[in-house]
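Here's what a typical entry looks like (acylphosphatase):
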Amino acid sequence: MKLGLKGFVKNTKYGTVIGQLEGEEEKVKLMKKWLSKIGSPASKIDKCIFKNEKTVDTCQYSCFDIHK
């Protein structure tokens, strides 16, 4: 939220996290760095994979949510 990104993250039943990010390219890069190196306080990061990346003209999401 601090970066003004839109999208979501969700914990899976497999102990992994999935999600989507939308926003300014530089802010998305910052978030990806944070996700791959630091993460939330309770997280343990073994590896981080980003895929299906593309540029969009219009954001699909209106905010950033944590899905449960």
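The chain has a mean pLDDT of 91.

More examples are in the samples folder.
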